[in-house]
């Protein structure tokens, strides 16, 4: 199957033709890719990613080059974007379709049981297990064959008292274990981008090099303040507007830094902070960008007026689609049978490295 990937939309700033979808997902990383895929079975989806694709970049593909991939991170167009935290710590975050799964060290493990028990959410663990398996069959390699350095680390952990020895397992357990990897046994990386292979290609449009300027909000009597669309620009500087249909949603999956940043840029955040940056205030929400739990607090702390603002939501599938809108204005097509492979059609702009 081929997924259509738009590099630069044909829409001009003058025309500003508005695109309409059931769901707009901002951020094509480890959350955005699988979420776009599952929702595409029933809805029309626009997936926006500020980075590019990196199919022909050996520093991304190969396990032996993972250090180079991070060392060459810059603030311009590398798959890993370098940044320094306010307390002076050098770091990097993903800026590529597939997100952090394309730049990290490939260690894979399921979540700690305490996460589910303490989340305040009633989980259907049978569905959770199926979701794990859905991801693992596509991108995770499970093997107990480890190299000499990994063997030495395992022995050191056990000798230092990190027990028991749990052997090979994907579960999050107390002690030492061998877990899964997103690098296969040949050293090739498999990232979240490959989950797009499972999408309904007729319902999914993926746009890369799409920098979001802001979320568009509107007020109505029944919902109060609602997110109805986004404004984004491409590498040519052209501005585009995309909106959602009635009962649709905008989902921010741009990471722990990008999601609150986008909310602040859109005028949702602490009033004093927004005023200091001359950002028009849409909604005074003191928790955004302040605490580690902003995802929950930004939604749960809203009492009145109601704020229909999804940062991350567990979406339940329904039996029929809201629409079956097909993708359009596509310049290049891609398939992901394994990470390095890419099939092209149309008039693309060449490989994105």
Structure overview:
It is a single chain. By secondary structure, this protein is α/β, with parallel strands linked by helices. 21% of the residues lie in helices and 24% in strands. It has 9 helices and 17 strands. Strands 1, 2, 3, 10, 11, 12, 13, 16 and 17 form a 9-stranded mixed sheet that branches. Strands 4-5 form a two-stranded antiparallel ribbon. Strand 4 and strand 5 (90-94) form a beta hairpin.
Q: What is the number of helices?
A: 9
Rg (C-alpha, Å): 21 Å
Main sheet attributes: strand count, strand direction, barrel closure: 9 strands, mixed
- Span between N and C termini? 23 Å
What ranges have pLDDT less than 50 throughout 5 or more consecutive residues? 9-16, 292-353
| Gross morphology | globular
Q: Helix coverage percent of residues?
A: 10-25%
Helix-and-strand structural type: alpha/beta
Mean pLDDT over all positions: 80
> What is the total tally of β strands?
17
Please write the string of helix (H) and strand (E) elements.
EEHEHHEEEHHHEEEEEEEHEHEHEE
Beta-strand content bin: 15-25%
């Amino acid at each position: 199957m081929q997924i259509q990937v738009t590099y630069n939309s044909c829409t001009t700033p003058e025309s500003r033709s508005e695109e309409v979808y059931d769901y707009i997902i901002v951020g094509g990383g480890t959350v955005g890719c699988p979420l776009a895929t599952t929702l595409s079975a029933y809805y029309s989806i626009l997936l926006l990613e500020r980075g590019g694709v990196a199919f022909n970049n050996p520093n991304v593909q190969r396990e032996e080059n993972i250090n180079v991939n991070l060392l060459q991170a810059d603030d311009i167009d590398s798959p890993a974007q370098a940044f320094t935290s306010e307390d002076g710590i050098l770091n990097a975050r993903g800026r590529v379709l597939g997100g952090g799964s394309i730049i990290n060290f490939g260690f894979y493990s399921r979540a700690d049981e305490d996460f589910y028990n303490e989340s305040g959410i009633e989980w259907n663990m049978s569905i959770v297990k199926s979701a794990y398996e859905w991801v693992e069959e596509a991108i995770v390699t499970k093997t107990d064959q480890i190299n000499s350095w990994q063997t030495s680390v395992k022995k050191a952990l056990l000798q230092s008292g990190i027990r028991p020895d749990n052997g090979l397992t994907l579960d999050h357990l107390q002690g030492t274990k061998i877990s899964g990897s997103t690098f296969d046994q040949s050293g090739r990386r498999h990232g979240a981008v490959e989950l797009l292979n499972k999408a309904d290609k007729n319902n999914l449009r993926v746009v890369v090099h799409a920098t979001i300027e802001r979320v568009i909000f509107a007020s109505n009597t029944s919902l109060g303040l609602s997110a109805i669309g986004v404004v984004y620009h491409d590498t040519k500087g052209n501005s585009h507007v995309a909106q959602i249909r009635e009962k649709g949603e905008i989902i921010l999956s741009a990471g722990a830094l990008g999601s609150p940043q986008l909310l602040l840029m859109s005028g949702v955040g602490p009033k004093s902070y927004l005023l200091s940056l001359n950002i028009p205030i849409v909604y005074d929400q003191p928790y955004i960008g302040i605490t580690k739990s902003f995802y929950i607090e930004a939604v749960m702390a809203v009492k009145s007026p109601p704020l229909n603002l999804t940062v991350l939501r567990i979406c339940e599938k329904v039996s029929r689609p809201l629409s079956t809108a097909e993708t359009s204005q596509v310049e290049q097509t891609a398939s992901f049978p394994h990470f390095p492979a890419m099939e092209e059609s149309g008039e693309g702009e060449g490989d994105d490295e």
